[in-house]
Write the structure tokens for this entry.
Amino acid sequence: MATVNLTAHAFMETIHRDGIVLVDWWASWCGPCRMFAPVYERASQAHDDIVFAKVDTEAEQSLSAQAGITSIPTLMAFRDGIGVFAQPGALPPAALEQVIAAVRDLDMDQVRAQLAEQEKQSA
């Protein structure tokens, strides 16, 4: 599957899907972003069960601010509508594959239980 360009309009709907959604926050002027782009594209072709999305931080400045993006590229991972990973920096292919494997291996029942416990403690 090719990467999907996300706008503010489609962002929430996309990340709240069941399954895994990866989001690459980038800009055309960013050297590390351009370096990471082909790595991300190849991974999107190898994992057709995952949504690989990209957000152009220049075109979507308000969305980028809402997401707390302060450095690009930043990779975020969502699983079943829950943010489970966020890290700035261009990842080499092996590291991206490790992130994908880790997100796949998550016990989402345990993740939900941890989130519920955190919400209970902060209330």
Notes: The two ends are 41 Å apart (CA to CA).
